[in-house]
Each structure stands twice: as structure tokens, then as C-alpha cells.
Amino acid sequence: MDTKIQETYDTVVRRNPGEAEFHQSVKEVFESLSPVLERNPQYVDAAVLERICEPERQIIFRVPWMDDNNNVQINRGFRVEFSSVLGPYKGGLRFHPSVYLGIIKFLGFEQIFKNSLTGMPIGGGKGGSDFDPRGRSEGEIMRFCQSFMTELYRHLGEYTDVPAGDIGVGGREIGFLFGQYKRITNRYESGVLTGKGITWGGSLVRTEATGYGTVMFTQEMLKAKGESLDGRKVIVSGSGNVAIYATEKATQLGATVIACSDSSGYVVDEDGLDLELMKQIKEVERARVSEYAARRGGRARFAESGSIWDVPCDIALPCATQNELNADHARTLIKNGVVAVSEGANMPCTPEAVALLQDAGIAFAPGKAANAGGVATSALEMQQNASRDSWDFEYTEERLQDIMVGIHQNCAETAEEYGAPGNYVLGANIAGFTKVADAVIALGVI
Ligand code: GLU
User: Fold this and answer.
1) Which atom of ligand 1 sits closest to the CA of residue 378?
2) Annotated active-site positions, please?
3) Start-end of H helices in 302-361
4) Residue 343 backbone phi and psi in degrees, to 5
5) Is position 421 within any domain?
């Protein structure tokens, strides 16, 4: 890192003490930027780095609710409105006990550049709560969502800030949040949230989009090397929305997805995962992956200990959560002959793992490019809401495909332009950053 970048990074660490994930995500972007600042001294003069690292607004609030036993529960709610130079703040809400300000800031920071890469007019933001939905009844989830929105609504709006889902927030939660927003404001403002149900303003393909997009990007990356997904053995970590639809698309493209996981362990099914069974267990019953192995009657095995990355594969798609794939895992994957790794989750690979994979010549797709299909389709949902229209599945999927091909091309060309062909980390960071930086300057000191 050059001195200017290092100084700005040091300020970020000092100003945001203890927020390790946020520091990590800033460093990851900064490490790509030296050649950009050299070519564009106006970014330094206008203090673009300093401005981009400081969120425009950070909201922290109390979320009180009553559980089923009539006990008062208190959680903490967050919304970090990071950057609105390209459009209204856009990014999901995460409900998970690990959530604190540092997690929301890292996700919001990533989101700025990811959203820029989509080519859609959306800024970057992220929110959530340390609320743990696991084991909570439907009534408790609804009361929590209503209380959360009772505070957050005043900061939202289709031209202001448009949340969606993330870990722990799916269609059910978006429904409760949207219902409360509608009730408080007395407005049917469809474009204020994305990830809505199809009958009340949602978009087809939004559910599938993040996982589908990750696989589409992987296919493009393989194509650039004269290869494809056909006949490949794939491992997907996680078993939530991203993992399930990455599995679906990879299977459609001729690959065999042999393993997935959750926080209790991982399951290996050498014949290929039975996706309908997995959907039933994870989406309908909200049960654990061990249940999958039990119901496959000896055809699949469940492992409680060890790592899913020990299972030999051609392609690894980390789709669970941040820092789930470390240096040891990367070494094992390399030893087992992996050819491509694409991040379906946000920052699932540690910096050490990324460096090892890249040094070994393995095609590596960073999340801000590879998982941008979700938020891109959210922007398509906003388009449909604005025009009071709804598109069919085929057309919407084509739009998603075009966007993912475009992101791949942009990253590949930018990497090439900066003398690092095949380095998608560099390509994504530089392409995402320059568009935001130019807008920061154009809009003046605000
Ligand atoms: N949470 C998703 C992400 O990480 C989607 C955000 C959205 O659709 O606004 O990009």
C-alpha cells in the first residue's frame, strides 16, 4: 500500500476501534488501489478514499419486543447508510446473533462497490440486528420485525434507502417488515423493500438470483479459460438461499453438487444433492442438514466435525458467511485439484486464503462481483415497481445473465488494463471503485 492509502487505512482503524471485519474489507479494497491513485491524482486531491470510508449516516436503535412467554426482549438494530452517490442506499438486513456495528459496516462497504459493479443506479447500505431467529416462533419473528420497522421506517423510502434480505431475513421477514411500513406510512410504496413475494410487488428470479448469479459468473470465468461447469464436481458451503440456488444452477449447467453444510456440520452425497429434499428440509421445515442425510438412507453421509473443504472437488462455492474458508482450507482445496473458487457469500475467504488460491493460479471470483446477482435483481425489482409492471421468469433471468456477463467482462478487462490479467479481485475493486470515485467528485463536497 502506498503512504496515502496506508494513512487513510490507519485512520479507519483508529476511528472504528474493534471492528475487525470492517478493517478487513477496507484493506482488501485498498490493496488494489495504488495504481488507480497513480493514474488519477484527482482522487487524492479530492480526498475520495477518506470520504468513501466514512458512512454518510449510521443509525443504531433499540428494538423492544415481547416473546411468547410475555417476557420483554431487547435487541439492537442497525442501518449503516454508507454511500448514496450512485443511487438510494441499497443492501440487505441481517438478523444473526453475531451482528454488531463492525459486521454491518463491512457489509455496507462491500455493498458500495458491488452495487457499482452491477451497473444499476443504487448506492450502498446494510442493516440488521443481533436478534437470533433460530428457535423463535412465527409470532415472535413477526413482533420483532414490526418493532424493528417501527423505528427504521423513518429512514427508508424508495428514493432514500431500500433494504432487502440477508442471513436470517427471507421472504417471510420482508413480508412482516413491508406490512408494518405500509401500516405506519399509509402508503403502498412497493419500491421501499426488495425480496417481496410475487403477489405483492416482488420479482420473479429474485429468490434464485444470488446463487444463480454466482454460478453464471463462475461459468464465465471458466469459459475465459476454455473450460466449463459441465461434468464438474462442485461443493457449496451453507444451505440457505444462496447455497440452494447455486446448487440448482450448477446442476442445470451439468455439474454435480456433492456437498453442502450448516452450522451443525456438512453432508456429502456423491450422487449429487437431491435439491427438492434439501429445499423441503431447509426452506419448509427449517431443519438441519443432518436431517437430509437421515432421509437419504445411507446414500449420503453427515459429518459433525472436520471441514466441508476437506471433500475433494473441482469447484468450491463458499456460500455461508464471512471468513469461513481459511488458509488451511485453501491449501487442502489446492492439493485436491480445485480449479475455481467463487464467493457466493460476502467475504467468505480470508485474505490469506485468497492469496494462496491466486498464487496457485486458481480462478478466484470475489463476492462483490460473483454474488452481485442478488442485489442486481433487487434493482430489477425496483424497476418493475416503478413502472407498475411484472416481468416473466425467462426475461428476468436473461437480464440477470446479461448483468453477470457484463460484470465478468468489466472485471476481466479492468484487470487486463491494469496489467494483471485474470486477477478478478483487482478488476472488481478497481472497476467498482472508479465509478463511485468519479461520482463522489462530480457531486462536490457533500
Ligand atoms: N444481501 C444481499 C447482498 O449481500 C442482497 C442485497 C439487496 O438485494 O439489496 O448483496
Assistant:
1) 8
2) 126
3) 327-335, 351-359
4) -85, 105
5) no
pLDDT of residue 111: 98
- 137 and 88 in a common domain: yes
Mean pLDDT of 182-197: 98
In short, whether 128's Cβ falls inside 6 Å of ligand 1 is no
For every residue of 11-54, DSSP letters joined together read HHHHHSTT-HHHHHHHHHHHTT-HHHHHH-HHHHHTTHHHHHHS
**Vertex 319: Cα angle to 88 and 198 (nearest 5):** 55
pTM for the model: 0.97
pLDDT digits 0-9 by tens, 250-283 = 999 999 999 999 999 999 999 999 999 999 999 9
* Percent of the chain residues topping a pLDDT of 70: 100
| Cα–chain center distance at 202 | 19
Last residue of a domain, which of 347, 370, 393?
370
Neighbouring CB atoms inside 10 A of 14's CB total 8
* Residue 115 alpha carbon to ligand 1 centre in Å: 9
Domain range for 185: 56-189
For residue 59, the model assigns a pLDDT of 98
CA of 375 to the centre of ligand 1 (A): 5
Query: Structurally, how many domains does the chain consist of?
Result: 2
300 plus 226 within the same structural domain: yes
- Answer whether 87 contacts ligand 1 (Cβ < 6 A): no
Cα separation, 225 vs 242, in Å, equals 25
Domain containing residue 248: CATH number: 3.40.50.720
CB 228 within 8 A of CB 219: yes
Among 341, 370, 399, identify where a domain stops.
Answer: 370
How far apart, in whole angstroms, are the C-alpha atoms of residue 125 and residue 88?
9
Instruction: Answer for the pair 379, 118: CB distance below 8 angstroms, yes or no.
Output: yes
> Does one domain contain both 350 and 230?
yes
Q: Is residue 1 over pLDDT 80?
A: no
Mutate which of 378, 381, 385, 403 for ligand 1? The one with the most ligand atoms within 8 Å of its CB, which is: 378
184 and 328 part of one domain: no
The answer to whether position 26 is within a domain reads: no
- Measured distance between the N- and C-terminal CA atoms of the chain, rounded to whole angstroms: 27
Give how far Cα 184 sits from Cα of 42, 64, 154, 163, 170, Å.
45, 17, 10, 17, 21
103, 144 in Cβ contact below 8 A?
Answer: no
